[in-house]
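Weekly puzzle thread! Below is a chain. First person to post its structure in token form gets bragging rights.
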Amino acid sequence: MLQLIPSGWLGWNVDVLDQGNKIAQIKTSTLPESGTLSLDGTIYRAYRERMFSGDYFLESEGQKIASAKKTSAFRSSFQITYIDRSYKLTKQSVVSRSLILFEGDVEVGSIRPESCLSRKATVSLPEMMPAPVQLFVIWLAILLWKRESDAGAAVAASVAATS
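Winning reply:
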């Protein structure tokens, strides 16, 4: 079981802990939907193919390791592929921020915020999934949470402007 701890009060960077020990860091970029994943001295790059469209990729030293495709513009889910494996990461429900990872129809993992307002989370992913791919899955979850947060802030700002 992994734990996500925000690196600071603002932003979406997180430290990834295993039994209380920091094992990795995920940093979101100022560029839309991109970031870096640091693990054991290796930096992985996570990014979207084009600025506002296309697939998502995880790469190291120019080699693509994994990819993800948004399954629908209206759903909070991704189809994730690496080597010959395929997973689906999707929200547990419309009102929950929890995400469930499926391989086929079988639930194989989850990413669950500690509370409705917290950016801390617990992560359970398949042990046979390589650690860089696990970080990529977590980064995709952070993207979904950031989008929801940004959308909520935009709604609040428009309501405040009309009041």
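Puzzle host: Confirmed. Bonus trivia for everyone else. The longest helix spans residues 131-162.
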